[in-house]
Amino acid sequence: MEKRNQTLGEFIIENQNSFAYSTGELSKLINAIRLAAKVVNHEVNKAGLVDILGAVGDTNIQGEDQQKLDVLANEKFIQTLRKREIVCGIASEEEDSYISINSSDENHQNKYVVLIDPLDGSSNIDVNVSVGTIFSIYRRVTKVGTPVTMEDFLQPGKNQVAAGYVVYGTSTMLVYTTGHGVNGFTLNPAIGTFYLSHPDMRFPKAGKIYSVNEGNYIHFPQGVKDYIKYCQMEEGNRPYTSRYIGSLVSDFHRNMIKGGIYMYPKSSKANNGKLRLLYECNPMAFLAEQAQGKASDGHNRILDIQPTELHQRVPFFCGSRLMVEKVEEFIAEAE
Ligand code: AHM
Ligand code: MG
C-alpha cells in the first residue's frame, strides 16, 4: 500500500511486530490515545464559541457544567485510558498524585503507566493559537496484579516504550514513536481518520530557528545569554530566526520540520526552569532522539535523568543536534 494513504489503524497493525512487547498491547494503547485525541480535538475546535455555548462555570443546554478545556481534556484522556485493559496507572499535569487503576483486582494484567500533559499551552486557547497533548508510556516495574507505586512513574526517560503528542493546529496531528523512528498522522476531520502524512520525521542536523521566551533574557545564565547573542550575530548563515509560540508542542513540531532549537533554561527566577520532566521533557526528548535530534538540560541527556518527584521541573534544550551541542558548549564555557 502507498504509505501516504495508510491510516493510523493500518499503520499500527503493520508495525506492531517492531514493538518489543506483546503485539496487541501497543495497538490498544495507541488506539486509546487516538480516540481521546479526537474527542479533545472536537472540544478544542469549539473553544471560540464560548460566548455562544456558555463560559466556564455556566451550565450548558444538557444541564452539564461547562468546564475549562484543560480539565475536560484531562478527564477525557483518563476516562479513555481507564477503560482499555492495559493501563495500570496514570499521572497527569492536572492531578497532584498518580491514579491507580484496578488496584483492588488481583487478576488484572495491566502493565503500562501513562504520564500525560492533557492540554499543554492552554493559555493559548483564548487567542486561538495551537495547543497540544503530550504523552509518555512505560512498562511498570512493580509486580503485575498489585497496585502501582511511585516507582513505576519515577523511571528515567530512556525506559519509555512509547511517547508522542497531538497538536491541535491548523490541522490536527498525532505524532509518536515506539523507539523505531517518528511518524506523524494528520486527522481528516470530515471522516475522523488519522492518515500517515509525515513518515519517518527527522530534525535537520542544524537549523536556523531558535525558540525561547526572550522576555526572561536578563534572568538567564550567562552561557544561554551568550548563545542567544550568537544566534543573532551576522556571520555565516546567521542571524537565525526567532520563533516562539509559547506552546511547546507547536514550537517543537515546527522545529522538527524546519530545523531549530527550543530552549526553556533555568533562570534567576526559576532554578529548574518551568517545564516538567516526566510528561513534557521526557516524551519530547524521546521523540527528538528518535528523529535524530538531541535533548539536554544544558549539561546532560534528558533521558538519563533519574526523576525524584512526579512534577519535577528541568531546564530544557531540544532540537537539531548541532544547535543543542552548541548551546551546551556556551553553557560549559561560561561556568
Ligand atoms: P503549561 O503546561 O502550563 O501550559 O506550560 C507549558 C508551556 C509550554 O507549552 C510553553 O513552551 C511554555 O509553557 C511557555 O512558557 P512561558 O510563557 O513562560 O514562555
Ligand atoms: Mg504543560
UniProtKB/TrEMBL annotation:
One of its GO terms (cellular component) is cytosol. It catalyses: beta-D-fructose 1,6-bisphosphate + H2O = beta-D-fructose 6-phosphate + phosphate. Residues 204-330 form the Fructose-1-6-bisphosphatase class 1 C-terminal domain. This is Fructose-1,6-bisphosphatase class 1. Mg(2+) 1 binds at E93, D117, L119. Pfam families: FBPase, FBPase_C. Keywords: Carbohydrate metabolism, Cytoplasm, Hydrolase, Magnesium, Metal-binding. PROSITE patterns: FBPASE. One of its GO terms (molecular function) is fructose 1,6-bisphosphate 1-phosphatase activity. HAMAP family: FBPase_class1. It comes from Sediminicola luteus. It is found in: Cytoplasm.
